[in-house]
Amino acid sequence: MPGYYDIDDIIMEEEAVSVVFHVGANGVGLLDPGSETNCVEKGAKIDLPFWLSQELCRRRAVSIIVPPCFNQKMKKDVQADAACVDLGTRYPYFYEFGCKIFPLVGDKSIGPFLRHTFASRYKEMLSKSHTASINAIPKFVLRLSKEEYQMFDAAKSSMVEYKKWRVSHLGLTKSSLLGHKRKTDSQLSPSS
Amino acid sequence: MAGQSDPSLSIFSAPEVEFLAEDEMIEIVPNIRMDALNLLCGDFGPFLPQIACKVPLWLAVALKKRGKCSIRTPDWMSVEKLTQVLEAERESPREFQPLPFHYVEISRLLLDHAHDDIPEVYMVRSLIEDIRNVRFHKVESGLETISGRTHAVKLKNLSAMEVNIVRPFMVRVLQAFYKHDSPEMVQQVDTSANKRPQVVDRGPRPAFGKIWYIATAHRTP
Amino acid sequence: MNTTFKNYQFTMLDKIYRSEEEKERALRLNKDRKMAQSQGVTVLTDAIKACSEEIDKYKGKLVVKEGARAEMYARRAAQLLQELSTCEEGQLPPYNSDKFDQVIRECEEHSKQFQSLIREKNSKNLDIEAKNEDHYGSFIHHLSLIRNKRCLMAYVYKRAEVIQSYRWKVGRVLPEEIHDKLNFSEQEYFKNHCAVIDSYTKDLDLDLTVDVIPPKDPYIRVRVLSEIGEVSLGDHSVSLCKDSLHSLRRTDAEPFISQGLMEEFME
């Protein structure tokens, strides 16, 4: 369970989902760009951030429409070749989002779908992570979701550290925080 | 001694694992006369020229560096033994041969500081490297078999450094599988689940003997 | 350590209302305005007046919508966290006090809206359990407030965590480029955190911040990288000139090495 201060969790909850209002709400016209008044009308279909949709859905004020990353097309793509699906740029929080949205939309297939997706993608991650060279960033990394990237990075950096230890004496060094030059070339971050 | 690399997962860094390995005992042959050392970790000596005695590896290396002794290469580090181990490793694709728990670190320390005491040192160096590669390849193919319902992975005879390398990745993977496999996520009736023996204790376990369990974190409801 | 963190949060909140910066900015604004007036720049004020008259004319007929500047509720707060998240692990972006203040203002707006909707609802004399449009409107403002609060707390908390780690990685004195990224309360927090560690270290009679890598030998050879000068180490003093080589106690050398003033010398 992510904690209250979990930054990844907070950013993930910023993800937009389409909802249909079952009630009206006054004083929140900003939410609905199509609204002429300062209200959201009953029956309006709008995009809201997940943190808001979730609470409104729990109180049956709105219902959530299954987001595109769990629709039939996506399922077919994963079926065809899971490793090729680009989660990194499109849905960096694919799994976390799936886990949270799944009890709210009543689509029972999402749970097994997430597991299937992860299980099929994990092997490639495994085989590439330990052999990846220290500096080059393989292209496939950009396709990984944030969670997958963290796994890949964990495997890669422990291997890199081991290799360093093998060949040299690891002595004291200057703190990595000092005199830090910003990397101008592709600083890897799957969320960006 | 929490790991420096990632405090949230408390992994050991390679130098930290090496530090732990330095407590292993090893035989030295002193070339000096010296009184016994009464240390926190035990009493060693007295040291007499040409009389072998056992000391912790760190002490052996410290004496060796100052030219006060030679270190006796352990039995398992002989070319003959290592060749046997390498063959056995290649023949059994699923099992790991019993080697000292800290074989990677001990061999590295001895090759670095006492290479003149090791017979056929180049052969030894390359054999150990080969063994480590074969074993690590096995760990990887073992990891490929992880799927849902894996709550703990039993890796008999895996050594400290080997475990340390795979731990960060493995813990995360098991956590992910565990999350996606929780009953809330899989609401379908799965009959095969009841027949399979379940791992009862899901908490992280200590290492007993040479068997390591890399278990998932506790489930939070 | 918990109390320091709490204190830190309090000072943070305090800062929001009564910071020196805020006062300074207000003073500056006032000064600017006076200067503009004294120079007789009235063209601008006339233009503004004309514009507002124009708007007044159409008031009621036209719904003046907030343009692209209107952000989804709590979006700015999430942007604050994005800044932290895209930063490399263990590093901090400069403290974004502008955005932080904007979020606080958004919170005040939510609070105002929330109260007015509740008043509206109460004035309709409905059943206490009844849920009308006012109820859901106020609920959304309430949720947005809570969301904003969570983001701000996480922002402050994460930064506090990184600031704590500086003591272990860099030492008691922060280099300018890091120091400048912290706001005043954070600098105070760092000082207090150092004091806590120092007093604990003193009680233990063991310096916890040295030997982060298991030591091999009590002494190491070092090369001095920049002029340090006369330093007293335990019972003797050494003159650490640039490019000179020394054999020092590892624990003595470690702070200098982590600050980049000397390096371990290996043959």
Automatic annotation (TrEMBL), chain A:
<dbReference type="InterPro" id="IPR036224">
    <property type="entry name" value="GINS_bundle-like_dom_sf"/>
</dbReference>
<dbReference type="InterPro" id="IPR038437">
    <property type="entry name" value="GINS_Psf3_sf"/>
</dbReference>
<dbReference type="InterPro" id="IPR010492">
    <property type="entry name" value="GINS_Psf3"/>
</dbReference>
<feature type="domain" description="GINS subunit">
    <location>
        <begin position="70"/>
        <end position="165"/>
    </location>
</feature>
<feature type="domain" description="DNA replication complex GINS protein PSF3 N-terminal">
    <location>
        <begin position="5"/>
        <end position="57"/>
    </location>
</feature>
<dbReference type="InterPro" id="IPR055221">
    <property type="entry name" value="PSF3_N"/>
</dbReference>
<keyword id="KW-0539">Nucleus</keyword>
<dbReference type="GO" id="GO:0000811">
    <property type="term" value="C:GINS complex"/>
</dbReference>
<keyword id="KW-0235">DNA replication</keyword>
<dbReference type="Pfam" id="PF05916">
    <property type="entry name" value="Sld5"/>
</dbReference>
<dbReference type="GO" id="GO:1902975">
    <property type="term" value="P:mitotic DNA replication initiation"/>
</dbReference>
<dbReference type="InterPro" id="IPR021151">
    <property type="entry name" value="GINS_A"/>
</dbReference>
<comment type="similarity">
    <text>Belongs to the GINS3/PSF3 family.</text>
</comment>
<protein>
    <submittedName>
        <fullName>Putative DNA replication complex GINS protein PSF3</fullName>
    </submittedName>
</protein>
<dbReference type="Pfam" id="PF22466">
    <property type="entry name" value="PSF3_N"/>
</dbReference>
Automatic annotation (TrEMBL), chain B:
<keyword id="KW-0539">Nucleus</keyword>
<dbReference type="InterPro" id="IPR036224">
    <property type="entry name" value="GINS_bundle-like_dom_sf"/>
</dbReference>
<comment type="similarity">
    <text>Belongs to the GINS2/PSF2 family.</text>
</comment>
<dbReference type="GO" id="GO:0000811">
    <property type="term" value="C:GINS complex"/>
</dbReference>
<keyword id="KW-0235">DNA replication</keyword>
<dbReference type="InterPro" id="IPR056784">
    <property type="entry name" value="PSF2_N"/>
</dbReference>
<feature type="domain" description="GINS subunit">
    <location>
        <begin position="76"/>
        <end position="175"/>
    </location>
</feature>
<dbReference type="GO" id="GO:0000727">
    <property type="term" value="P:double-strand break repair via break-induced replication"/>
</dbReference>
<dbReference type="GO" id="GO:0006260">
    <property type="term" value="P:DNA replication"/>
</dbReference>
<comment type="subunit">
    <text>Component of the GINS complex.</text>
</comment>
<dbReference type="Pfam" id="PF05916">
    <property type="entry name" value="Sld5"/>
</dbReference>
<dbReference type="InterPro" id="IPR021151">
    <property type="entry name" value="GINS_A"/>
</dbReference>
<dbReference type="InterPro" id="IPR007257">
    <property type="entry name" value="GINS_Psf2"/>
</dbReference>
<dbReference type="Pfam" id="PF25005">
    <property type="entry name" value="PSF2_N"/>
</dbReference>
<feature type="domain" description="DNA replication complex GINS protein PSF2 N-terminal">
    <location>
        <begin position="14"/>
        <end position="71"/>
    </location>
</feature>
Automatic annotation (TrEMBL), chain C:
<dbReference type="InterPro" id="IPR056783">
    <property type="entry name" value="PSF1_C"/>
</dbReference>
<dbReference type="InterPro" id="IPR021151">
    <property type="entry name" value="GINS_A"/>
</dbReference>
<dbReference type="GO" id="GO:0000811">
    <property type="term" value="C:GINS complex"/>
</dbReference>
<comment type="similarity">
    <text>Belongs to the GINS1/PSF1 family.</text>
</comment>
<dbReference type="GO" id="GO:1902983">
    <property type="term" value="P:DNA strand elongation involved in mitotic DNA replication"/>
</dbReference>
<dbReference type="InterPro" id="IPR036224">
    <property type="entry name" value="GINS_bundle-like_dom_sf"/>
</dbReference>
<feature type="domain" description="DNA replication complex GINS protein PSF1 C-terminal">
    <location>
        <begin position="216"/>
        <end position="266"/>
    </location>
</feature>
<dbReference type="Pfam" id="PF05916">
    <property type="entry name" value="Sld5"/>
</dbReference>
<dbReference type="Pfam" id="PF24997">
    <property type="entry name" value="PSF1_C"/>
</dbReference>
<keyword id="KW-0235">DNA replication</keyword>
<feature type="domain" description="GINS subunit">
    <location>
        <begin position="126"/>
        <end position="203"/>
    </location>
</feature>
<keyword id="KW-0539">Nucleus</keyword>
<protein>
    <submittedName>
        <fullName>DNA replication complex GINS protein PSF1-like protein</fullName>
    </submittedName>
</protein>
<dbReference type="InterPro" id="IPR005339">
    <property type="entry name" value="GINS_Psf1"/>
</dbReference>
